[in-house]
Amino acid sequence: MSKHKDSSEHRGSKKHSGAKKPKKDDGACEVTKGRVRSHFLDGETGPWAKKLAAGPTTDEASDPDEQTLRPAHRQGPDYSVPSSIDIVADPVLHAISTRRSISKLDPETPNDSDLRELIHAVSSVADHKGLKPWRFIIIRGDDRIRLGKALDDAGEVHRKAGEINAKPLRAELLLALVASPQDNPKVPEWEQHATAAGAGHLLELALWQAGWGVMWRSGNLTNAPAVRRLHRLKDKELLMGWLYIGAVPERYRQRLAHSTRPLPDPDQFLDTL
Ligand SMILES: Cc1cc2nc3c(=O)[nH]c(=O)nc-3n(C[C@H](O)[C@H](O)[C@H](O)COP(=O)(O)O)c2cc1C
Fold first, then answer.
1. Which band of pLDDT confidence, cut at 50, 70 and 90, is reported for residue 261?
2. How far is the CA of 220 from the centre of ligand 1 (A)?
3. Whose CA is nearest to atom 16 of ligand 1?
4. Which residue has the higher pLDDT, 110 or 22?
5. Is the Cβ atom of 249 under 6 angstroms away from ligand 1?
6. Which domain of life does the UniProt lineage start with (predicted)?
7. At what angle do helices 27-40 and 91-98 cross, to 10 degrees?
């Protein structure tokens, strides 16, 4: 299957070590960089750069919380040294920053050997004490109908004979993510849930980078007894939803190539004490 993009277009570009990035990348890469940079990250003209240059807004300056909770020495992040990181030229950062969920998927899916390789890669997820508190369950074919039935049972939905809950049929392949915490005096359960969620996010990204479409879905009934039973969860385990996986439809690939979805302003995610 074809990928979302030609990754060679990124490999051709050099990683810059200095603060100023020379504009000498050739052809397609330059086009991609120009397009993505103008929409996603422009250190000189992006909205957050403008905000920084303008200083605090009147609201921020007069906010009593800002004045009472922040000590006088508090400066916020120091952006005076420009970054040498290039989220467009670096293929990993580019994949992270352009990833998106695909809700309507074509039927082709990765095979189980592909899944094994991808899971091998994401098992590097940060994991306190290496407890490996996560696992995935493959759901294909009629197992999706069994999942629909379990969701119906959990929601006390009664259908006419022959009707089924079609929600799990929105993709040919679902991967259930299970957080599987262990008793450990040094690693509370929430940390192990964080590791499991990290494995889910890494796998979403790994699938995306391998050319597949993914959407993480859950719902109010995810951990209802009937659904837990179907997945054979142990008492302490938590079902964290399902990755719906398939091929990215061609029409959507073309839209992706001209995407203008901006990334949010990073300043909202970064501060100092
Ligand atoms: C744990 C988890 C559960 C989610 N469950 C649902 C869901 O049930 N339905 C849904 O529409 N989106 C769900 N989402 C959000 C989508 O996966 C997706 O992130 C969202 O639509 C935004 O699209 P984007 O990933 O392209 O930014 C869930 C995300 C996470 C991390």
1. confident
2. 13
3. 216
4. 110
5. no
6. Bacteria
7. 40
Give the atom of ligand 1 at the shortest distance from the alpha carbon of 216: 17
Ligand 1 atom closest to residue 240's alpha carbon, by position in its atom list: 1
Q: How far apart are CA 3 and CA 211, in angstroms?
A: 4
Q: What's the confidence (pLDDT) of residue 121? A: 98
Q: How far is the CA of 1 from the centre of ligand 1 (A)?
A: 25
Q: Kindly tell me the sign of the dihedral angle through the C-alpha atoms of 113, 119, 124, 129.
A: negative
Q: Is 101 in the pocket of ligand 1 (CB under 6 A)?
A: yes
Which of 101, 177, 240 for mutating ligand 1's site (highest number of atoms within 8 Å of CB)?
A: 101
Query: How does 142-164 read in b/e, with b if 16+ C-beta sit within 10 Å?
Result: eebeebbbbbbbbeeeeeeeeee
Burial readout 90-109 (b: 16 or more C-beta within 10 A, e: otherwise):
ebeebbeebebebeebbeeb
Residue 262, Cα to own-chain centre: how many angstroms?
15
Please say if the pLDDT value at position 253 is more than 60.
yes
In the chain, the domains with their CATH numbers are 8-98 (no CATH), 112-253 (3.40.109.10)
SS3 content of the chain, % helix, strand, coil (to 5): 40, 10, 45
Q: Are strands 238-247 and 212-217 parallel, antiparallel or unpaired?
A: antiparallel
pLDDT in tens, 181-234: 999 999 999 999 999 999 999 999 999 999 999 999 999 999 999 999 999 999
pLDDT interval class at 75 (50, 70, 90) = confident
In short, whether 219's Cβ falls inside 6 Å of ligand 1 is: yes
